[in-house]
Description:
Two copies of one chain form a homodimer.
Chain A: H1 9-13, H2 20-27, E1 33-34, H3 47-58, H4 61-68, H5 77-91, E2 105-108, H6 110-122, E3 128-133, H7 137-145, E4 149-156, E5 159-160, H8 162-175, E6 181-186, H9 200-212, E7 220-224, E8 250-255, E9 267-270, H10 273-286, H11 292-303, H12 306-333, E10 339-341, E11 349-354, H13 364-372, E12 374-375, E13 377-378, E14 395-399, H14 405-425, H15 427-432
Helix pairs in contact in A: 3-11, 6-10, 12-14, 13-14
Amino acid sequence: MHPPLALSAKAARTTEQPISYFMKQALENPDLISLAAGLVDRESLPVAEAREALGGIMNQPDIAKAALQYGTTEGLPALRERVWHHVARLDGKSLAAYGLDTSDVVITTGSQQLLYLLNEILFDPGDIVVTEAPSYFVHHSVLTSHGVRVVPVPMDEQGLRIDALEALLERFAKSGELKRLKLIYNCDYYQNPSGLTLSLSRRRELIELVKRFSHEHRLLILEDAAYRELGFEPRGLPSIKSFEEGSYHVIYAGTFSKPCAPGLKTGYALLPRDLVAPLLRAKGGHDFGSNNFSQCLIERMMADGAYDRHVAELRGVYRAKCDAILTALEEEFGDWPGASWTRPEGGMFVWLTLAGVDTGPNGKLLSTALDEGMLYVPGEFCHMPDEAGFLRRDEMRLCYGVEPPERLREAVRRLRRAADSIARASPKKASLAV
Amino acid sequence: MHPPLALSAKAARTTEQPISYFMKQALENPDLISLAAGLVDRESLPVAEAREALGGIMNQPDIAKAALQYGTTEGLPALRERVWHHVARLDGKSLAAYGLDTSDVVITTGSQQLLYLLNEILFDPGDIVVTEAPSYFVHHSVLTSHGVRVVPVPMDEQGLRIDALEALLERFAKSGELKRLKLIYNCDYYQNPSGLTLSLSRRRELIELVKRFSHEHRLLILEDAAYRELGFEPRGLPSIKSFEEGSYHVIYAGTFSKPCAPGLKTGYALLPRDLVAPLLRAKGGHDFGSNNFSQCLIERMMADGAYDRHVAELRGVYRAKCDAILTALEEEFGDWPGASWTRPEGGMFVWLTLAGVDTGPNGKLLSTALDEGMLYVPGEFCHMPDEAGFLRRDEMRLCYGVEPPERLREAVRRLRRAADSIARASPKKASLAV
């Protein structure tokens, strides 16, 4: 009576996030402490700052009407100007030195929309994107849904390994695959999921590398700076973008979700000029412009200094949480053979390795941790199999952004109990599971 | 030194909106009266209503924090529940009779995002979509960018001609093309661009037709009800969706942009159940959820009755504007041979035919009208060539949504002066230009 739907090939390639199942389980257990979801700290959301800015908008009918009316596809001019100046100030670089102006800035529905739109305008099935290993799993699934071949390059404590990337590019140049390589994706500040930061010298080297290997077409770097403003020190490293002369290779992606409020779902991009028109044509079809009201609200918070004051407060909030989880890891896993973890300088993620323990959805640790009342993101969700088909399975992402310090400590204690419990149950299996 | 960008095949298929060029020209001439842009009336935007609702949110820290935090991909549960009940109330149908529940409602970034996501999950290049002729030009370009073959079916004063659609479907069934036909797109209330409404009996017939021609797969109807709540009478026709038993064939697309505020960029869909998961997987990649803050604001305006009061006011506003433009058309074009126009019962568009006059971007009328200080949307932008390659060129869309009554009258006077001027310059050419 009701024949089946006929969906597109792309719909068939678009799979559910592997983490969804566990997130739903977590919702059903109110006692569970989740270090899985990458949300932001609730208590420090800028309620007073937003209330004041909203008052300023809504009490002036002309400004209020402009905020409630349609915006433009590229975004609010005043916000686009502020964004660019803001990034220049973070970089300590003069405006003139960028080879940019306000028209090279596009406002997006969070940075996720930018990632998506770039996929759409850049990649055909079979094209290649280089990512860090590990990397942001939601982006992996967007790439896969576009039929992109994702090639991971390993990281160390200085971020993406430039020597490994160079070797890969040389191999691609020889094999002809360089023709299909379009973009190198890099989350260079307090990376999601590892918490690692790309070092100063590697930022310079990365630019040199993409220039050198831009043979027939221009290799692009997508610099995902989502966590940049959550650095614990007021002055972090300058962006990769700041190291290029002019604006040709680097797409700088920023967002107001982390440093301000995710409910406003507003991100932005600084783009090489010849990418602006194709991006806007695509965005025109998606929505002809992101939420104008939120753009007006953020612009006003930036204009009256509330945004900067709020970000300064956040540094302390996230630093205290990071200290709490690092202390707990030291206390609980300092004696665990093969345990090691990153020490972030900002952001909201710690990457924990338990060498030899299967942390994945089919391993014992995840279900035992759920029974103990904690949830993490299995590290394998953040990896793509390498070219030999190998997928690392003994790591996990711990998000310290959401829970308060005492709950972070309790979550790590529960994780240790879970690890102890599976080690007792089958001591050999636990260390051979990977 | 900087090799060219390598864009995707889809980027190459994504062209600029043909209207953009004229819109930019219009911005450069502040004296111009534009009846081209389909924006809403500025003066009636719900400033007081939004201010009160925002006060209610921001003065309660828990509610404010929830509004500033991430939402979910499917949207705010309270808003999804209200939306569904709201549509049922407009339809005068009991909730139980729909075969729906709150989980079949998805909130989108305006209805444009819904159109886009449906394209993505339903169509492969070469698939067929039936549209009305004329139809919404932004949707045309989204369809084209997905490689869809758009087949127009003519309208009359009762909307889409069901007899013509039936003949087409029968032909498709014989030729085998029915396999590629996925969807019939219908803007059934005060259509953009024609202002026409699908009659009551045709709503029923349309449902019967898609059921009858759902052979191997299920034919879908996309009911774009964007202008529904701008009907001049408080009780308009029930939706196409209300005529189906259960929820299988009709996707109902609604928006808060027209009846509330476009700056909040919030739309919604009532979906057949088996479309919800594919749509949410796609939306997860795009943005994992639309602007949560705006959803909370709209939900509160609906909860406290401000939304309904506002919509009731809008009826009067748009009716007065429609009266003004219809009177002006009667006065200015009543004596013009071959002039005819639609008489909308709601919405913001009148469709004017000047038989024999080339209204297109290469004709004389458009540039002469610009010189006189008015702008319209050439009708040919709203048409796809029919199967014989013919494209109608003697119509135009006039939007009465933006300008106040006295400026609408002046715009029509200017249009008449432009028409007179080209008729004087080449009386024969004007009537042979099509």
